[in-house]
TrEMBL record:
It is found in: Cytoplasm. Required for rescue of stalled ribosomes mediated by trans-translation. Binds to transfer-messenger RNA (tmRNA), required for stable association of tmRNA with ribosomes. tmRNA and SmpB together mimic tRNA shape, replacing the anticodon stem-loop with SmpB. tmRNA is encoded by the ssrA gene; the 2 termini fold to resemble tRNA(Ala) and it encodes a 'tag peptide', a short internal open reading frame. During trans-translation Ala-aminoacylated tmRNA acts like a tRNA, entering the A-site of stalled ribosomes, displacing the stalled mRNA. Pfam families: SmpB. Keywords: Cytoplasm, RNA-binding. Its main location: cytoplasm. The keyword Ligase does not apply. The keyword Zinc does not apply. GO terms for cellular component: cytosol. It comes from Microbulbifer agarilyticus. The gene is smpB. Residues 133-159 are annotated as: Disordered. Belongs to the SmpB family. One of its GO terms (molecular function) is RNA binding. This is SsrA-binding protein.
Amino acid sequence: MAKKKKAPSSNTIALNKKAKHDYFIEEKFEAGMELQGWEVKSCREGKAQLTDSYVLFKDGQAWLLGARIQPLPSASTHFVTEPDRTRRLLLNKREIAKLVAAVNQKGYACVCTAIYWKQHLIKCEIALAKGKAGHDKRETERERDWNRQKQRLMRSDHR
């Protein structure tokens, strides 16, 4: 009898928490990623990082820069593994045109917010974002702290 594999606890591989702190997220898009075999195996082990990653548009294509996928120590020695290589994102032409038009406006950027599994495929969630000023970041933190305090008060009242 065949053994069943354990289902992963979450389908999220990596999150970019810094993006939510530094930007107002306007609109989100789902993009496929063009990966090599060793990168997929590393993603299964959770060896991906998205801090300081962003999306660049060149020649009608979207490219993910700054994302780091650490190679496994058991990776083959037949090919060179580049952890910080530029990876192509797979989007429709209409989506690329919409993102390029928005990024060309002042203050907009396109950042990667998450990498996750969707069935057997690895997807990248990219977001159209507008930069936050220093006072906006402080206001967001105050609001988050207040919401946490409200939750604690509500829990203590129900006990």
